[in-house]
Amino acid sequence: MEKSSYFYQFLEPVAKELALIANELENSIFTSPRTMLTHARIFVENILKQVIRAEKLPDEQWSNIKDRIDLLNVNGYIKPEIRDALHHVRQIGNQAAHDTRTFRYSEALLSWESIYKIVKWYVEVYGPLDFTVPSYQDPSPHVNQMFGIVEIQKRLKMLEELLTSKTEKQKDEQGEEDSGKSSEGFSPKPEPPGFTPIRTLIYKGKELEVPYFLRDAFLLPQRFAISETFLIRLGAEQQARIMSELPNNLEGMHKHVKRYNEKNDETFFQELTVFIEEEKLRRQLSLERTGELFYFYKADYIVVTEELSQIPVNADEFTGIPSLLRQLNEDQIETIGQLPKELIILAKYSNVGIGTVQKLFDQLKEKQQRGRVAEPVTS
Question: How far apart are CA 94 and CA 96, in angstroms?
Fold first, then answer.
């Protein structure tokens, strides 16, 4: 299976919404068994609603998943094996929703197996006749591909709401008898960990989505060239130090400090947009190249190899930045490997501006490109 695929991707042509929710359930097995078990119950209940609608059975009077299982069982639509699998997901899901005990990976895995039985039955009975369901596959934890609990819960809620909306729409419309048909224009898709929008910031009608991995990010003033002093002043008033401290509406932020106006709010919003895009690129890079160290400068970066990290921080190696080199040495930074990951921080030093940091970064890139730190040839 390709790296970008997931087990229930095979379900997309039949029920895309269910496939995407199943993907989120798999993501949560080793991150939060409780979340997986709770939402697995909702997942199978949606399948039951689809089946009841396909069989033209009255659904309004059945208020919960147990009633729906009993309805299909009494009318002979499910075999004992499927009935038991449904009840297993329901019962452990109820426990996860209300019990404060610790839930184990093994319990989530058993529910995952039951889900497979249910999905296989649903597709074989109500899906296309020529559709083949793949053999069961155990999920495996991907340490570098873990989603945060809050992120998973938000993704699941979004998908479940879309699925419910689609089901309600199908009930109201005539001529839509294919319970497996996926909604046209359905846009959500699996994303890398951390990229789920967790909140939306606005400024005069413009919207800016904040991804999960940035929800508590430190807003380093030096990353905002024009708004640097503005952010420093706001920080002194305990405002705008971290992303979660920002109000949803950025209009009027200048009122927290003296001698600033609406233009500063607008500029900050624009620079914040650039900041988030740069951070997304950095995050994607870190996911794609796990285990590597990078030094970042604005939207650019360099890979810090072992050889590069050993280069001395002195005038023999770097020219045109004597003041920066001297102050780095005074702080016991003697080699490149001791520099901060975010190079723009170096602009904090006396008589050191963005231009000086740019010179250092350019010289580091040049050393890599010309083979100054190339791996030695071994026999």
Answer: 5
Q: Interior CA angle at 6 toward 97 and 180, to 5°?
A: 75
Based on the fold, state whether residues 368 and 244 are members of the same structural domain: no
* Within-domain flag for 183: no
The number of beta carbons lying within 10 Å of the beta carbon of residue 79 is 12
Domain boundary among 290, 325, 357: 290
| pTM assigned to the model | 0.60
Largest Cα span, the chain:
85
Domain end residue (candidates: 257, 290, 323): 290
3-state secondary structure of 287: helix
Distance in angstroms (rounded) separating the CA atoms of residues 252 and 233: 15
Q: Do 284 and 250 belong to one domain? A: yes
What's phi and psi for 21, nearest 5 deg?
A: -65, -40
Q: Which residue has the tokens 């997304």?
A: 280
Helix (H) or strand (E) holding 96, with range, is helix 80-98
* Residue from 282, 260, 266 nearest 224 by CA: 266
353-368 pLDDT tens trace: 899 999 999 999 998 7
Q: Which amino acid is at 365?
A: K
Among 184, 204, 328, residue whose Cα is nearest residue 270: 204
Joined together, the tokens standing for residue 359 give: 């010179």
First to last CA, the chain: 37
pLDDT in tens, 212-243: 999 999 999 999 999 999 999 999 999 999 99
Expressed as residue numbers, the domain containing 228 is: 191-290
Q: Are 276 and 211 in contact (CB under 8 A)?
A: yes
